Amino acid sequence: xxxxxxxxxxxxxxxxxxxxxAVASARAQTYPHKQILVVxxxxxxxxxxxxxxxxxxxxxxxxxxxxxxxxxxxxSLARGEFVASLDSDDLWDDDFLASGVECxxxxxxxxxxxxxxxxxxxxxxxxxxxxxxxxxxxxxxxEGDWCLLNPDEVRKLFLEICPAxxxxxxxxxxxxxxxxxxxxxIADDWYLLLEMALGKPCRAAFSLTPRWRKRVDxxxxxxxxxxxxxxxxxxxxxxxxxxxxxxxxxTRRESFTLARRAAGYRLRLLxxxxxxxxxxxxxxxxxxxxxxxxxxxxxxxxxxxxxxGLAGKK
Length: 314
Known about the structure:
The protein is α/β, with parallel strands linked by helices. It has helices spanning 16-27, 47-51, 67-77, 96-107, 128-131, 151-160, 188-199, 227-245, 252-275, 278-282, 285-294, 303-310; strands at 2-12, 34-41, 57-62, 80-85, 90-92, 111-120, 123-126, 141-143, 146-149, 169-172, 204-215. Strands 1, 2, 3, 4, 5, 6, 7, 8, 9, 10 and 11 form an 11-stranded mixed β-sheet that branches. Helix 6 (151-160) packs antiparallel against helix 7 and helix 8 packs antiparallel against helix 9 (252-275). The radius of gyration is 20 Å and the shape is globular.
């Protein structure tokens, strides 16, 4: 392990065009000490050819095993004290790594995560984390641009939701337990962080200042997919793996909370499917379904002003 080095893991699958741009954003980081690893998860396009001439990039190919396995392959090759993983359809701002490493070092944290902007064509949208306002109870201790989380807060937050996609994270390598969840269909990053939070006291921080962009193009693992598809995989499949793998580490109350949430999503799925029928339309189920979806949302009018406000800026 090399002190101060950040190992950047970029998993990719059949995204020859976008992965080149993702690599460019990793290479453009103002933080100078970095190892860039691209793990090709069985692509059948010209990814290998397009990356062949790029300096400072380590390219590794494997048979298709999913994004969690690709990230873990990169983790096995990582030499850095810190680890970050950039999805091949995402782009970091130039100061992403510098701000993340500075935060980890300044406050002695296990990981930190930054807010993002969603990009669909020419349109931009705030992240769900910012839009839904679930960050509000966790901004008690602010240090500059960052809101610091103690171990109890980390555990509570990540048992409820995962506000930290892989591209948002900078993680201390020594804090990682086994890595990303390879059996997860969507939530491989959530598995990584839950395993850390449940395994030992874990300290973290988040920033609401957007420092990266998620491109939504119809090929994403989660974003932009129909609700029924993503809910089945995330809440009916991945949640069951969480409950099984982490059962021994959960309190009775936490186990009950996870079970109740899974039941809630089963109900939402049933309502969603029923709403698409003729009878469902007559019973006005679509309107009921939208009301249920909106119950957990607390809209933020101006996401940029929120980020600036938490950083103490005008």
